[in-house]
Amino acid sequence: MKIKAKPARIFSKRAVPSSNTIVPLKDRRLNFGNKWDFAPAPEDSKSYVISPRHELFIGGKFAAPNSGKYFPSINPATEQPLTMIASANAADVDSAVKAARKAYETVWSKLPGRERGKYLYRIARIIQEKARELAVLETIDGGKPIKESRDVDLPLVAAHFFYYAGWADKLKYAFPGKLPHPLGVAGQIIPWNFPLLMAAWKIAPALACGNTVVLKPAETTSITALRLAQIFQEAELPEGVVNIVTGAGETGAAIVRHPGINKLAFTGSTEVGKQIAAAIAGTQKKLTLELGGKAANILFEDAPLDQAIEGIINGIYFNQGQVCCAGSRLFVQEGIYSTVIKKLRHRIQTLRIGNPLDKNTDIGAINSRPQLEKIRALVQSGIAEGAELTQTPCALPEKGYWFAPAFLTGVTHAHRVANEEIFGPVLSVMTFRTPEEAFERANNIPYGLSAGVWTDKGSKIFKLVHKLRAGVIWANTYNKFDPTSPFGGYRESGFGREGGLQGLAAYCRLD
Length: 511
Ligand code: NAP
Ligand code: MG
Prior knowledge:
Blueprint: E1 53-54, E2 56-58, E3 61-63, E4 70-75, E5 80-86, H1 90-106, H2 113-129, H3 131-142, H4 146-168, H5 171-174, E6 180-182, E7 185-189, H6 195-208, E8 212-216, H7 223-234, E9 242-244, H8 249-257, E10 263-267, H9 270-280, E11 286-290, E12 296-299, H10 305-317, E13 329-333, H11 337-349, H12 369-384, E14 388-391, E15 406-409, E16 426-432, H13 435-443, E17 450-454, H14 458-467, E18 472-475, E19 494-495, H15 500-505, E20 508-510
Parallel strand pairs: 1-5, 7-8, 7-10, 8-9, 10-11, 12-13, 12-17, 13-16, 15-16, 17-18
Antiparallel strand pairs: 2-3, 4-5, 6-20, 11-19, 14-15
Helix pairs in contact: 1-8, 2-4, 3-4, 4-6, 10-11
The structure holds NADP nicotinamide-adenine-dinucleotide phosphate and magnesium ion.
Residues 73-74, 76, 141, 220-221 line the site of magnesium ion.
């Protein structure tokens, strides 16, 4: 069937910029409804030095890679190179797994839980002490606004280490009637959207249970994982308990293939998750997968609208929409559709996009050029398929990767933007009439990670949460995380849980 393309309704000619040649970062005059603006308030970044080269962290020491190769890590807000990162090959991964095995057999699995807990508490406290530095590095390397890395990521990173430190000496009470035993060496592969937080989600429960770790951060965001390695040294964590191998997808694949790995934990795309599941089929390796999502936010007529709009905005524009559980589909009950669109349009115009180090910035830089290209291509496909684009008319910095917050209306289920993960600050808006229609349409995708329900009626919430096929459901709020609460999906969003007791179970054999 030929689809007739409608012209996009765009508030600004620069809505989907083909190049970023608009305003240099230092002069950025951010859109604030053209009414008023804050003075620039950049976080101090000069006090923190990024060394020009980062080595692998194996057996408690930083070491040059076997390959002798390094790749650059850049600041996505300026496109400036920050440092060179070591590229680990299969031989390096082998050294890391051997170091982890030795640490597992000689030290870590033999330590009483209360001793392991002490190390974890120590790590958590050092993270708190260095939180500002870590937040700045996270923002410079990954592009997320400082107010998110400082107020969301870092407190949660420390909280995960504290939480699992508390479990280390209480494991025998965690699963009544069953005794937990560690699995051995855990291979952990993480993405770029929450570099430190994903490392904490994986390392803290693994260590609490007595496992040792080989972790691979994402290619574009390795700096903070290696800073965490320095914290492990400072905490005098025994050598080899955590090893960090940096590199591209091939490094991750070498971890997956390595016969010395007992448990694999992967967070990333559904595509790579499927490759990993296929690669380890028939082996004894235990697996947890945290994959993509296409969450639905369901907004009923009886919801407190202004509160809901804030939550929906937070759900999709938080971290530039580069969040697996982003509320990227909004289902609005028909009677309030025009009011909601009016409110959304007004609110996205007040979001401030620009220098991620500025404390007033709401939307920072997209993590990499390929990710920006992907967002642009999907938005263009939405327009070509007949959706209408509404985007903030704002000046974007000259350098770096930016995408102004946007939403698409006139979206139907057949559109790619209603089914595929955009992983950017773009909301697809659709309507529904009855609760039945809402959950049927929300469930009608291959993913099952998260969802949101906005209504004044508790009964509606309880009815819907039983029908929605998503691992995490927020009611009258969105994107709330806590280390005690399990997180994960099912269907194409993966399996297994991180956080809470369920997160511990993923790193134990229960007898
Ligand atoms: P990705 O391409 O799957 O990469 C994730 C990690 O896997 C990176 O460290 C990557 O290395 C590595 N990798 C790539 N190919 C590999 C292979 N063949 N074998 C082993 N490892 C390999 O995902 P991404 O684009 O970085 O991240 C975005 C995706 O992650 C989205 O789909 C998002 O929904 C998902 N995500 C899910 C959750 C969750 O909890 N469910 C949380 C965050 C993100 P390189 O960096 O070198 O490519
Ligand atoms: Mg970077």
